[in-house]
């Protein structure tokens, strides 16, 4: 099965940058581009409920018809809107030099739809928040975390700021198994060909750390990438953000959720926190 | 984890809480009425409804479905309560819970696919009729006051929702109860009230172990009841889950629901409540009121307990006539009226299944028996229809010497007699060829029928050649996997 760059779009203000980054990734990876729009016709919230609590003659059949009618209307509008968005996305990708983008529309929630397409996905491009999310807060959209947890594919999370051709990439590296696997994956991928890769390790400047870092840099250089390593001391998140600002980083690369769900529930997760405060696109590797 | 918690509990919070309260209010009269059907204090049904509702909110497999003390279950307990008392009912409830959990682990919910549409309709109709019939004792041998009150109650229930604004914001059954209670208090007429039917709870339920001897004798008494309760409870729960699945267009985990029902009944038994299951009417009300997530079920359970404990003095004053009106509404709302209209459209065999289910249930007061008969009839109908798909033709290959028979279609227990009768043993020929390559032998009956045919021909001195027997009998093996394999289906249905 062909593996696509899959870009999830909806009516949010993120869709334009999702579109641009997806087109870029599609060109770099030489993988076909697919725009995916999930039509969710069953929003969890119910409007205008009937609280009469009475059961009239044939209440069950009437209710089924009413609910079906409501969904039907909503679904038609959603689908039509989705088509327009997909057309627009394909046109935009065409301008960026990807002419054969495939639009796909599926019924269902975003998470389920993406899971369904997982086997055809090489890289998933996703906005930081969806159209229904509260724009004012630093929140991640309600879907992103679930998508990141559920999908075993690399995910490029894109903020609202416009597209800039990536020149500097920061790879957050902590020597863990996930991080090593991520570096190996990057070394094999053509995505960052011709881009400066900064492998950054946060922690004390010990021999052990330096060795791990050197391994990562070596591997990337062998693959023909411009890579250099840096070790910085300090608190993980703040240090990474500072490095990002100092070096004009265009994309951050990190491993996803190194810890168990229980630990995450109790102490929170660096991944979520990093994503929440990200101003540049983040590539999340599993 | 937080995300999935949000998804399952908080995504529809406002509507869930509102509908939960509506359901709690609608549950009170039903729980009381069903306790009275079972012959126990209203307390037993109310505690059961609370416990089941709250536990199923966490343990159930179908979000937004309401489970509590139900009529279907109450009807099965009547003789147990009459002959052995409440403590045995509690013990039976616990055993029901255990059996249902077992059913969940054995994945018996998957058996629901053998329960046809007509059987489900019959079940629902029979349930409605039984609930209605259970109200009759309250309406016989009473003064005209009761009839007047019941009629007024029905008028309020069906008329109130048409009022502008207030009509759709306050549950009309509740208005019915409030108004009728007020009328009763104002006039002081001599009619029966809930207080006359038994003790109402004035405290929170407490944990208690049923006071029965733990021996084989007890098991012998309660097991038949528990088994029936478990079966009926799961049947109604699975049917209700399917209805809610359809209404909300979302999937559910039926086997988890089985286990959940079991856990809920264990909880109910330990808190002094009777066994219950999912409620079709209340679940419809919940969906209609906007309830979708587990929160609605939880709010309904807790709301019910709070209302009952703090309003027990008021609840005892509710005239039975008001409850009867509410239960008639439930019965009318449960009954599938379109099934009567469809009687003319549907084939006779389907109607027979539905009507037999209703008749057996109403006659025995046991929904499990009704469903059993319905499923059996439906299976026989099906076997009969498929058995008709069999054609046996023949032609002479060589005049007076050889004949070839062609068997096309399904040979199994229901059609093997026709198969055996299709051959002409009187014809005197040297050789007979039976081409089975387009036939399917589904069971041992079919193989034996073929054996008999071969032997009969041999006794007439005729040689028999069988062609394509291997292909034809490939369907005998139990696991003949042809799912989704177009080529295999093509070959099979050739």
Question: Care to give the gist of this entry?
Answer:
Chain A is an alpha/beta fold. Chain A is built from nine helices and ten strands. In chain A, helix 1 packs across helix 2, helix 3 runs parallel beside helix 4 and helix 5 runs parallel beside helix 6.
Describe this structure in words.
The complex is a heterodimer of chains A (286) and B (494). With 286 residues, chain A is α/β, with parallel strands linked by helices. In chain A, α5 (177-188) packs parallel to α6 (207-222). Chain A has 9 helices and 10 strands. Chain A is elongated, with a radius of gyration of 21 Å. The relative contact order of chain A is 0.15. Chain A has a 10-stranded mixed sheet, sandwiched between helices. By secondary structure, chain B is of the alpha/beta class. Chain B has helices at residues 2-10, 13-38, 42-59, 71-84, 86-105, 117-139, 144-159, 172-187, 216-248, 254-270, 280-288, 294-310, 312-315, 320-334, 338-342, 348-364, 367-387, 416-421, 444-459, 469-473, 486-493, and strands at 67-68, 277-278, 390-398, 402-411, 431-441, 463-467. In chain B, strands 3-4-5-6 form a 4-stranded mixed sheet. In chain B, strands 1-2 form a two-stranded antiparallel sheet. The longest helix of chain B is centred in the middle third of the chain and has 33 residues, at 216-248. The model of chain B has no long low-confidence stretch (mean pLDDT 87). The interface between A and B is large, with 29 and 53 residues.
Characteristics of this structure?
heterodimer, A: alpha/beta, 9 helices, B: about 500 residues, four-stranded mixed beta sheet, 6 strands
**Distinct helical segment count of chain B:** 21
The major pleated sheet of chain A works out as:
10 strands, mixed
Residues in β-strands, percent of chain A: 15-25%
Looking at how many chains there are and whether they match, the oligomeric state comes to: heterodimer
Q: Could you give the order of the helices and strands of chain A? A: EHEHEHEHEEHEHEHEHHE
Low-confidence segments of chain B, given as residue ranges, are none
In the predicted model, the low-confidence regions of chain A spanning at least 5 consecutive residues are 134-138
> What does the average pLDDT of chain B come to?
87
